[in-house]
Amino acid sequence: MGSGNVAYHFHRALLAANGVELIQMVARRGDAFSGFEPGIPRGILGETVLEADVYLIAVSDSSIETVSGHLVGKTGLVAHTSGARGLEALRGITRPGVLYPLQTFSRERELDFGEIPLCLETGYPQDLPLLRSLAESLSPKVFEVAEPARKQLHLAAVFVNNFTNHMVYLGQALCREQGLGDGLLHPLLQETFSKLETLSAYQAQTGPARRRDQITQEAHLSLLRDSLQRELYKIISKSIQRTYD
Question: Which of 27, 73, 79, 81 could staple 3 via S-S, CB 3.0–4.6 A?
């Protein structure tokens, strides 16, 4: 249930999985499945939803309650894919669960689903084997993660992925201001993440904040015309310095 990036990648993984039959895709609009594999029965939210063993809700966090409301009374297991929401988002569902993929999804990027950690939780222990069986058909990296830890994990993912990506965007924008291509930063980005395979992030930290180079930091601040970017530079530098105090 859903037609966004997460639903798109899940539907491709489900079609390729052994022992799984994808019997229906459901969305708010009939034209929402552009780019999805043809031949899968399509449904509109609010109309008939076929009976299934598992209903997988892959929609935005704010829409989970609305979508799951259309499944009240179903006997199958209903699982959402959010890392930030708990079982309470599936209010009224008899057999609630969570199947959270720890990954960033973009329609334009091919993903090896077998490399994605899948985090599971069910409202009742007897439902865990079914959800685990489904998850293991998609990836060997399956973990049972209860709500408090999963929410913390999602928060960690925001720092690691969303915030990091925004930092790259700001760096690219600074390069473009001087007519420099984004490609100049790519080797640095590749090494930044490659060395995390052998070093912890704590060990890998470098830069003017790490070595308390106040002269360089002040020079950087003088180059930033945007007040929010200056505050961002200051607070991240302060966090780095406090980490090594």
Answer: 27
